[in-house]
Amino acid sequence: xxxxxxxxxxxxxxxxxxxxxxxxxxxxxxxxxxxxxxxxxxxxxxxxxxxxxxxxxxxxxxxxxxxxxxxxxxxxxxxxxxxxxxxxxxxx
Length: 92
Prior knowledge:
The chain is 87% helix and 0% strand.
């Protein structure tokens, strides 16, 4: 791994961690439920991206599979929450 790639990946991990902290703050403080849903979406996307960067750093396929699972569960969860906020029920 080249030194430029090494430092770029470390910087990406640090900035993703900061973005996750900002999203966590919005999740806890958000004035409306829609703000909280968007913060949750941002959290799972940043978590997925962090797993992808870790997969590049450690050159392991396990991180890529975990990132795919995070994306899948995050999408299903945010769709269920959005449907609940719109209609008041998830299963009709």
